[in-house]
TrEMBL record:
This is Cupin domain-containing protein. InterPro entries: Cupin_2, Flavonoid_dioxygenase-like, RmlC-like_jellyroll, RmlC_Cupin_sf. It comes from the Bacteria. Signal peptide: none annotated. SUPFAM superfamilies: RmlC-like cupins. Residues 37-104 form the Cupin type-2 domain. It holds the Pfam family Cupin_2. The lineage of its organism: Bacteria, Pseudomonadati, Pseudomonadota, Alphaproteobacteria, Hyphomicrobiales.
Length: 152
């Protein structure tokens, strides 16, 4: 890794992913850590899932997130650091009327970068079963809707 600053409007290799209506902008990646800026428009979400082999973090920059964290609904606001340990089920929801901006990172990186390429531009009409299968092939396990307690 080269020392330096990744400016706010820059990304890793000029990548901007469209992940089911959300914009993910990768900022840095090593074998040990992968970070990206995310913008989640109102009404978008990441369904409850598990990272069996990664710890995930969010530093909330703008907006108010609702999380389902290990079966409990919790709220995250600007300046909050959200810790999502490996193996713990979690879902991420924008139930507000504003776009939420956050910095995500996972450790270790594993297959998440490749998963985002696989999900890029699948679109809002994507088959949920295909999303689940692609994610499982990249070591991210989505929970069945009846087990998620998401209660949108």
């Amino acid at each position: 890794m080269e020392p330096g600053i990744v400016k706010s409007r820059e990304s890793l290799d000029q990548i901007r992913w469209n992940i089911l209506g959300q914009t993910y902008v990768p900022k840095q990646m090593t074998e040990e850590c992968f970070s990206w800026h995310a913008s989640l428009p109102p009404g978008t979400f990441v369904p409850p899932h598990i990272h069996p082999d990664q710890d995930e973090f969010l530093y909330i920059l703008e907006g108010r997130f609702s999380f389902l964290l290990d079966g409990q609904e919790v709220i995250g606001e600007p300046g909050d650091l959200v810790k999502l340990p490996r193996g713990v089920p979690h879902g991420i929801f924008n139930k507000s009327d504003s776009t939420i901006k956050t910095l995500f990172w996972v450790t270790p990186t594993l297959q998440l970068y490749d998963l985002f390429w696989a999900l890029h531009n699948m679109g809002p009409g994507a088959d949920p079963a295909e999303i689940v299968a692609v994610s499982a092939a990249h070591a991210i396990d989505f929970l069945p809707p009846e087990d998620s307690g998401a209660g949108q």
